[in-house]
């Protein structure tokens, strides 16, 4: 597997809606026109859908096992690849401030996967040691961990397959082409990897307005606005529909919030740390309010948390702490973190 998610295509240098193969190299076919025999050529055109498919396949390849050619199946392995791709986007173009923040947010998803798997393993070990262990409370804890493990993995992959190709299309073709071509993305929905659970809740490639708002802000140099627009696309257009509207997800999150507020055993802290590690780290960490009246599944409560964290990230980038942030993103790109 390459150490970069980026791939190169011969068509990247071609203009949209132009022939891919030079006319002299095209095969000539006989045909009739107005009753007369004429020579014709069949020309393959680089249409917007082809460029979208190229960007989607790059994302899919990054979460594929190079040895087997099959999609990675372990959520923790997929998560590390996704973290790395987001980090690489920011390292290649510092205007992609959403991607820099997403590297930390996706890393935090990895921390959630680690916590859920540890909870399940501990519950299994305790049941083996003491069959009477599995009472109502501890059984609910294990069920919640199992639910969140699956939902975190689903949200992490679905978002990546949606938003990474958007960044790559913009990098390759620019804003005007993105604006013109965004609605063509839906044409490839039957040719791409889109999780079955996501298909039930969200149409692939829907041209949400926040996408164009976000990249337009990048064009204008308003990076703070770009992060807010793309974060709303991420949280409301994608994750809300794919995982947070799910009843089981909400029940699991509510149980964890209650346990966290009341400092009960097994609760996962609801925080995002702007470092490569999972543990909270002072001014580099943002928390969801520790209140039972605040709900992570609620898009308004969650967006307040996300925007507050985005502003914290922006301040750190503009401060003397920037080298630490850059070093952490480099570490995430290299596959570190989630520990």
Which structural traits does this protein have?
elongated; mainly alpha; 339 residues; two-stranded antiparallel ribbon; 4 strands
Question: Care to describe what's here?
Answer:
With 339 residues, this protein is mainly α. Helix content is 58%, strand content 5%. It is elongated. The two termini are 23 Å apart. Helix 4 (136-181) crosses helix 6 (209-220) and helix 4 (136-181) crosses helix 7. It has ten helices and four strands. The protein has helices at 48-62, 75-92, 97-129, 136-181, 196-199, 209-220, 223-244, 247-261, 299-317, 322-333, and strands at 28-33, 36-41, 271-273, 285-287. It has a two-stranded antiparallel sheet with strand order 1-2. The chain has a two-stranded antiparallel sheet with strand order 3-4.
């Amino acid at each position: 597997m390459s150490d970069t998610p980026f791939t190169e295509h011969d068509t990247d240098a071609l203009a949209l809606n132009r022939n891919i193969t030079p006319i002299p190299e095209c095969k000539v076919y006989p045909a009739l026109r107005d009753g007369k025999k004429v020579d014709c050529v069949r020309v393959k055109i680089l249409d917007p859908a082809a460029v979208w498919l190229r960007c989607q396949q790059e994302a899919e390849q990054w979460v594929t096992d190079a040895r087997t050619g099959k999609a990675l199946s372990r959520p923790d392995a997929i998560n590390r690849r996704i973290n790395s791709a987001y980090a690489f986007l920011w390292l290649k173009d510092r205007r992609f401030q959403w991607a820099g923040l997403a590297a930390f947010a996706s890393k935090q998803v990895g921390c959630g996967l680690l916590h859920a798997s540890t909870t399940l393993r501990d519950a299994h070990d305790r049941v083996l040691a003491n069959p009477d262990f599995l009472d109502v409370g501890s059984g609910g804890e294990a069920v919640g961990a199992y639910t969140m493990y699956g939902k975190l993995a689903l949200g992490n992959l679905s978002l990546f397959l949606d938003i990474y190709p958007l960044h790559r299309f913009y990098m390759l073709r620019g804003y005007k082409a993105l604006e013109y071509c965004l609605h063509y993305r839906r044409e490839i929905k039957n040719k791409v990897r889109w999780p079955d659970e996501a298909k039930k809740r969200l149409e692939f490639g829907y041209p949400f307005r926040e996408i164009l708002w976000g990249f337009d802000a990048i064009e204008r140099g308003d990076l703070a606005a770009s992060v807010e627009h793309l974060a709303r696309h991420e949280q409301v257009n994608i994750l809300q529909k794919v995982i947070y509207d799910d009843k089981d997800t909400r029940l699991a999150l509510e149980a964890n919030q209650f346990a966290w507020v009341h400092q009960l055993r097994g609760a996962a802290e609801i925080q995002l740390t702007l470092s490569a590690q999972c543990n909270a780290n002072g001014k580099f960490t943002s928390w969801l309010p520790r209140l039972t009246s605040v709900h992570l599944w609620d898009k308004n409560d969650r967006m307040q948390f996300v925007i507050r964290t985005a502003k914290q990230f922006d301040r750190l980038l503009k401060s003397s702490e920037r080298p630490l942030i850059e070093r952490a993103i480099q570490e995430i790109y290299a596959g570190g973190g989630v520990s």
